[in-house]
Amino acid sequence: MYDVDAAPIVRRVREASALSQRELADRAGTTQAVVSRVESGVASPSFDMVRRLANAAGFELRLECVPHRVTDPVVDAYKPGVDQSLLIANLRKSPRERFSTLLSARRFILKVRRVGEEARNRVAEPTAKYGGQDDG
Amino acid sequence: MDNDLDNILTRLHAAGVEFIIVGGVAANLHGSARVTVDLDLMYKRGDANITRLVGALAPLSPYLRGAPLGLPFRFDHPTVTAGLNFTLDTSSGPLDLLGEMAGVGRYEDVVLHTNTMDIIGNDSLVIELDWLIRAKRAAGRPKDLEVLAELEILRGLTDKNG
Question: Which A residues 41-100 touch B at CB under 8 Å?
Answer without folding.
Answer: 66-67, 70, 72, 74-79, 81-84, 86-88, 90-91, 95-96, 98-99
